[in-house]
Design goal:
- It is a single chain.
- With about 180 residues, this protein is an alpha/beta fold.
- It is built from three helices and nine strands, in the order E-H-E-H-E-E-E-H-E-E-E-E.
- The protein has a domain of about 120 residues: Rossmann fold (3-Layer(aba) Sandwich), CATH 3.40.50.2020.
- It has a six-stranded mixed β-sheet with strand order 4-3-2-5-6-7, with helices on both faces. Strands 1-9-8 form a three-stranded antiparallel β-sheet.
- The protein is globular and about 50 Å long.
- It starts with 6 loop residues before the first strand and ends with a strand.
Length: about 180
Amino acid sequence: MTIPTPSVLLSEAEVAECVAALAARMAPHVDDETVAVCLLTGGLWFCADLMRALSRLGRNLAFDALWLASYGDARASLGRCEVRADLQRPLAGRRALVVDDVFDTGLSLSEAARLVKDAGAGEVLTCVFARKPWPQPRAIVPDFVGWEAPARFLVGYGMDAAGAYRGLPYIGALN
């Protein structure tokens, strides 16, 4: 089976520039008591780079993860979120920064923000690397967005097609 090569939308260098610029915008809003809550599995690449960029700016956030599944191996949301792994770190009274790779329907980010708030976070901020346009209103608007993406099926930098392409250092499209 031949695996198609994605068309490059954002190069590796452009990804790094977006992350650095986003960290600079975020730094005044977070501190060392903030807990970054990475949405697995796609958000891992972006969250790691973002935390390093924030650290270079003197912000050393704590780390936690929340594993939600809303796509499976499909190219469209299943319309519900399944919690596959819950938070491990106490959030009571703390600021939490929910970090995800792509904002599409908004379902995962909305559910994650709700779960983090229910875990006792005093404040919940949200951050996505890429925000895709959507034809209808979404339940949540991310507080921080790194890149306004086109309405295409994105892969790379944590985003996948049935588990493939996550490790690409750039953002590509398959359609």
